[in-house]
Q: What sequence folds into this?
């Protein structure tokens, strides 16, 4: 299978079968001859799909909805190559026409004609003629109009533009040092010796930033459990909860266990941690992480956290609700997320978060702490649920670094967009 066919297969599975881009790229890595170009093209098409489709609409007599999905995908890969990678040679077109012969033979002439006329007329076709600001931003940055408007309505134009402009930027990859096994300084030296370019993290004292991360997850230090790949904002969630040694901790939405394992490292393997997630399949990932990092005292459960579990009532000193959310703070790493989100899904997620929080409050002992976090932005999730917690008479707000909550902006903080808030339970 050549690289173009690999790109086609990955995108088909991400766009039409709901697979994750990173998982798909990993699963084809062994077959690839130029993995970095495959990665760039897959992310590039996903990050620019709405804009690319806008251009295809201008070029095609056939309505977009009527174009066979495999043919549309080939056109999207073609336009991305020509416009963004500037491979304006007809050899690229010929390769895509060959791919069309395999996938949908009768459309070869159509694909050939569209791509050639794009090369001829690229400048004009690429212009966006939209007077409505939201529509124009939605096309230019390939964000669904409804989500663009949702962000704009709450944060205003400057924020929206900065957020959209930045969404595809590659951030430094952060790692969390497993301080039970090695110090930050020693891990830094070891990774530099292995050829990685390393800087200290800016938010967490246990974090390092890796400037050239290719091969990181297959290096010996990773296999030996000396570190975990985790963005600094995500680490901050655990640091805000600040669980004490020998305490009882509940991580209600735990998979794949990035924060659970930090909770265990943070409490030096002394706490009693319950890591819960609704997904049995994902619990396997938590287990793999626990084993790789040689952690102890973590039990796994599989409850739906929106349903009350009486065995948990008033049991925990610390409870983390790292809630299922719309993920708008992590679109840089998961570009496909934006196409699965609309207002309705956001409302549904916000309601689910609230149901989970109602139970979480009951699970915390008097004097215990609750952290509510998400990797998203927007008022329906973060702010409305924060207000719901503020209004609860059994809770008092604990400020974080002098603020009521933290909302990391992905375009400012060189980390994922995250919302973090903390409360103490003051009544039974
Ligand atoms: C943001 S992720 C958690 C990430 C995790 N805390 C970490 O740092 O690795 C949200 C998780 O919530 C889980 N989830 C979704 N609905 C749930 C529910 N009703 N009850 C429990 N877990 C749920 C998902 O399976 C997903 O793993």
A:
């Amino acid at each position: 299978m050549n690289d173009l066919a690999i790109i086609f297969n990955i995108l088909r599975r991400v766009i039409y079968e709901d697979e994750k881009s990173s998982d798909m790229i990993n699963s084809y890595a062994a077959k690839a001859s130029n993995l970095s170009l495959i990665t760039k093209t897959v992310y590039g098409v996903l990050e620019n799909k709405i804009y690319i489709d806008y251009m295809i609409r201008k070029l095609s007599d056939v309505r977009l909805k009527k174009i066979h999905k495999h043919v549309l995908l080939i056109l999207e890969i073609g336009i991305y190559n020509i416009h963004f990678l500037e491979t304006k040679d007809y050899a690229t077109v010929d390769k895509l026409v060959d791919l069309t012969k395999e996938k949908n033979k009768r459309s070869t002439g159509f694909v050939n004609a569209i791509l050639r006329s794009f090369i001829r007329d690229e400048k004009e076709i690429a212009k966006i003629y939209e007077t409505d600001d939201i529509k124009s931003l939605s096309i230019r940055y390939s964000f669904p109009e409804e989500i663009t408007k949702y962000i704009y309505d709450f944060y205003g134009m400057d924020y929206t533009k900065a957020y959209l402009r930045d969404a595809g930027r590659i951030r430094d990859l952060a790692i969390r040092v497993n301080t039970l096994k090695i110090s930050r300084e020693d891990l830094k030296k070891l990774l530099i010796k292995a050829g990685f370019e390393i800087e200290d993290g800016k938010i967490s004292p246990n974090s390092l930033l890796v400037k050239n991360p290719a091969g990181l997850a297959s290096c010996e230090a990773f296999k030996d459990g000396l570190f975990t790949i985790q963005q600094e904002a995500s680490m901050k969630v655990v640091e805000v909860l600040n669980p004490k040694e020998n305490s009882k901790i509940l991580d209600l939405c735990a998979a794949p266990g990035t924060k659970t394992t930090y909770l265990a490292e943070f409490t030096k393997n002394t706490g009693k941690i319950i890591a819960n997630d609704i997904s049995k399949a994902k619990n396997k990932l938590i287990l793999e992480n626990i084993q790789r990092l040689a952690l102890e005292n973590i039990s796994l459960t599989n409850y739906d956290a929106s349903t009350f579990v009486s065995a948990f009532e008033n049991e925990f000193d610390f409870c983390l609700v790292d809630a299922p959310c719309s993920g708008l703070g992590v679109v840089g790493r998961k570009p496909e997320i934006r196409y699965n989100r609309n207002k309705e899904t956001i409302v549904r997620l916000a309601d689910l978060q609230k149901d989970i929080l109602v139970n979480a409050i009951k699970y915390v002992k008097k004097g215990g702490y609750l952290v509510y976090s998400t990797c998203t932005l927007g008022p329906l999730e973060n702010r409305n649920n924060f207000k719901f917690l503020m209004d609860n008479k059994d809770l008092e707000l604990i400020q974080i670094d002098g603020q009521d909550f933290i909302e990391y902006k992905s375009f400012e903080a060189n980390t994922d967009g995250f919302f973090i808030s903390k409360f103490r339970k003051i009544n039974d």
